[in-house]
Amino acid sequence: MSKESMIKRDIQSDIDKIKEVLQSNPSIQDLTNIHMYIDGKYQSKISNWGLSQYSWNDKFGFTYELLSEVSLKHNLENMKNKIEGYLQDYRLLPITSLSSPEIKFINNNTNNNEIKIEIDFNNLINKINDMESLTEIETNEAIEKVKEIEKIYKSKDSKKKKWEKIKSILIWLADKSVDLAIAYLPIITNSLN
User: Fold this and answer.
1) What does the alpha-carbon distance between residue 35 and residue 43 come to, in Å, rounded to a whole number?
2) pLDDT tens for each residue of 97-132
3) Which of these, 134, 36, 14, lies nearest to 86 by C-alpha position?
4) pTM for this prediction
5) Would you give the DSSP letter of residue 111?
6) Which stretches of the chain score pLDDT less than 70?
7) Cα dihedral 9→11→15→16 (10° resolution)
8) Which of 31, 28, 9, 5 is nearest to 18 (CA)?
9) Phi and psi of 57, rounded to 5°?
10) Which DSSP letter does residue 49 get?
11) Which of 71, 18, 73, 69 is nearest to 42 (CA)?
């Protein structure tokens, strides 16, 4: 099982724990325990974590002394929904964010604002190798396309010529899985610069 599959399974397990507690007849201590566990695990992973939750303070987190049974249940339902959204977007977050390992923004110049973009094609190849949904043939084909994009990226061609070369890869990509397309988009758009 890939690392990504294990993470997704772990996230789904936490969603199930929340559902289980909410569907049972929990004590306030049971609610507090699962609330603290989920909060500690996801607070740093999900932006706007405290939004719409009772007894939340952006500086200090939750004030548990102020949380009633009703408040805890409300918060847990809210947390469950946020985690479900996080699970759906889990693969998107690391790929499309500016801190993506495939794309690095480097500002080496102190006198002007020129920014150099470096793309780590090997990182994308490793991600493709880890995709369980691809067959061996599809994996090899996807890696070949990454190598084609790398050649286009490194070429001194104009944007117009690069676009002509990239179009065939986009056509190929249109017939592939969403996960694969999402993985390619950052390197394709930055290869045209």
Assistant:
1) 11
2) 333 444 444 445 455 544 444 567 788 888 888 887
3) 14
4) 0.48
5) S
6) 89-119, 193
7) 30
8) 31
9) -130, 130
10) T
11) 18
